[in-house]
Amino acid sequence: MSSKYDVLVxxxxxxxxxxxxxxxxxxxxxxxxxxxxxFYRGGNTRHTRNMRCAHDAATEILTGPYTxxxxxxxLLRVTGGQTxxxxxxxxxxxxxxxxxxxxxxxxxxxxxxxxxxxxxRTNSFFLGGGRAMLNALYLTAERLGVDVEYDAEVTDxxxxxxxxLAARLKRPVKGETEIRATSxxxxxxxxxxxxxxxxxxxxxxxxxxxxRGTPYNRGSILKMLLDKGxxxxxxxxxxxxxxxxxxxxxxxxxxxxxxxxxxxxIVVNKHAQRFYDEGEDIWPKRYAxxxxxxxxxxxxxxxxxxDSTVVTSFMPTLFPPIAGRTVAExxxxxxxxxxxxxxxxxxxxxxxxxxxxxxxxxxxxVTEGITPPKTHWAxxxxxxxxxxxxxxxxxxFTYLGTRVNKEARILMxxxxxxxxxxxxxxxxAGNVLGKGYAAGMGMTIGSVFGxxxxxxxxxxxxx
Amino acid sequence: MHGTRxxxxxxxxxxxxxxxxYCEGLCAVFPAMELRRAFSDGDLNYLANxxxxxxxxxxxxxxxxxxxxxxxVPKTLAVARAESYAAYAWPGALSGAFARNGLxxxxxxxxxxxxxxxxxxxxxxxxxxxxxxxxxxxxxKLMPHNAMAALFSAALLYAVFALVxxxxxxxxxxxxxxxxxxDGGSIFQAIRDxxxxxxxxxxxxxxxxxxxxxxxRRKLYHHLTFYGFLLCFxxxxxxxxxxxxxxxxxxxxxxxxxxxxxxLGGIGLIIGPIGLFTARMRRDPALLDESRYGMDVGFIAMLxxxxxxxxxxxxLRETAAMGPLLALHLGAVFALFITMPYGKFVxxxxxxxxxxxxxxxxxxxx
Lengths: 463, 366
Hints:
The complex is a heterodimer.
Chain A: E1 4-10, H1 14-25, E2 30-33, E3 50-52, H2 68-79, H3 85-104, E4 109-110, E5 123-126, H4 129-144, E6 147-149, E7 153-160, E8 163-171, E9 175-186, H5 195-202, E10 210-211, H6 220-227, E11 232-233, E12 239-245, E13 266-269, H7 285-295, E14 302-307, E15 322-324, H8 327-334, H9 338-351, E16 386-398, E17 401-402, E18 409-411, E19 417-423, H10 441-462
Parallel strand pairs in A: 1-2, 1-9, 2-6, 9-19, 10-16
Antiparallel strand pairs in A: 3-5, 4-5, 7-8, 8-9, 11-17, 12-16, 13-14, 14-16, 15-16, 18-19
Helix pairs in contact in A: 1-4, 1-10, 2-3, 3-10, 8-9
Chain B: H1 5-18, H2 29-34, H3 41-50, H4 56-60, H5 73-88, H6 101-123, H7 126-129, H8 145-173, H9 184-195, H10 218-246, H11 257-282, H12 293-315, H13 322-339, H14 346-365
GO molecular function (chain A): oxidoreductase activity
Pfam family, one (chain A): FAD_binding_2
Cofactor (chain A): FAD
């Protein structure tokens, strides 16, 4: 391995590989440093499955057009306006070409997966999922002559006067070394797996968070950059969280630990009390709020309670529901106060008004006279066995990042663009995604800005 | 909760996979899985035999080992598949043949070839056994055609009967198609899917074998082997028709249909098994049912032996080696026939049945 490269890419996910490939295709020598072992390479990309790209017409895998304007409106809606419009519109425009470019890098598409029909028009799914997508990108990068090192922990970045000079590296076998490069692409993700960092904003509650991705998303590169004068973007206190099964592993449970049965029952906390309208909104909006709602409950735990009439109404789950022949028995298994749970369910059942159930629309099944109400899909829970999923907050990603411009060039705290530092992917997602989320957008940010960053980094190195 | 540990594990994996579904575009197994929420023994044996072992779902899975979810579908289904062969074998008393299959196949092949050599030696004069014979009826100087036809027809009929009984048990066990519709279209679809090995393709890029690069050529080698086998079978069938309908006796000249078919088939049966054997030896142990080395290699070896002795017989049929080679070739073919229901040959039968069921389910779902 030569110790001086044109382009050094730190990170190993979608954004990093798109940057590495684009830089290599731009004529640069490229080294990719992935902090994780080979199996866990790719950060959150390994758990993704689709990408949201604008397109003017239906394709083999997309059921209809999704215009730039519609994409922009969706982004505006989910972020509540917390986005950089010029940058976001640039990304959306570039996303159109990504649909083809990513295929040229070996990635294959398929129509939307079973259970995700609502995304069939807007999102393109990776055949075989995110890890298959990564495998294809790595094979292409290797074929083009990109060097890749795994287990490569970057311990320091040498940055002088807003110029990147070198990265210090600790490797398990080969020891410490310093790698110089003409350009840097920082594509090392967020800090969602760094519990200590999360505790700065969430306190001890963060100990009860489950992390949906690998333990390697520690945000160390992000921290180094911010400490060395790079301008930050995005709310540092915020992270994207969904409700996942409390029995999931601490790290890397991925998509299969998710639950979306909220709509078919009620959700109670450890005191067997309801705390939020389970029928407020349709998927995916409710999907994205329940992580935060559970995080605000005592001990960061909650229980989705439903009955046997609805078990086949949602996707099969990894962990089976916990069952009881009576409400009291179920409460016992969940270690909740049986009397309290019986009371909560009895009051809920008494408040349910007749209606026509349809979980695909905001239907007219409502409760009356309880707080909080359930404003849609309210049906009595009365057919044993009674069932429950315990859920905890599952942290997907963080919003804090580095400010960039349209060239994916990092901006310094004083607003000047760095001479040779670029950023792509989750580490700069906060530029366009100040809050909220819409399916597949993380991959759009990764591929679009990864490709731009790689191209610009190579251009800089050649000059 | 299931009959065996491997079915318990297959059930666990299908539960994991059914809550993920990222692999549904790779092959037939996952769409079939998605039609079910719970898995009986029969369901799992159906899925196991539907799996072609391309390895793509292992390489693409975010939960494969060393992940703690330890999802290894190709290996688990390979073990379940092999166990299903024993479970459905007819008669049940012979299912033990799958336990030490390599040994069983080797012993039967050796005995069969020895029996033909000894038989030829016992029933023929030395000058006939090692004589040079040519012209129509040359082979039958060593063994009368009617004896040959009777013996091999009996062996083949037994094999077919045993296979029919086995696949009947399988078909009953996997239960009705979800949605339930059986018609000729499904069988035609299954013939196409099996004929082109539609699901041995890693979702389009090719299969995985020794590493995470989809460079595997098993599909090609399997085609050579399978179509080689069919061509050889066709050669024998045409020759039999020539014999009884036209009164033309083997050996035939090189340009005649039975020889052309047999030669092409023989070449396939030599190159194909070599390729499959090489791939088998290089295969990542993570993807393999390692305990079934004997079964995998035994069948490949039987096909190779059949192809090689047949080709040698063709090349050397006008020399003194013809007699012994004919004995070896007939011994190999006889052993191949009678071991068909008790060796790796059955994989094709169960997989075809599974593909028919899958085609039915797809037609229903569509």
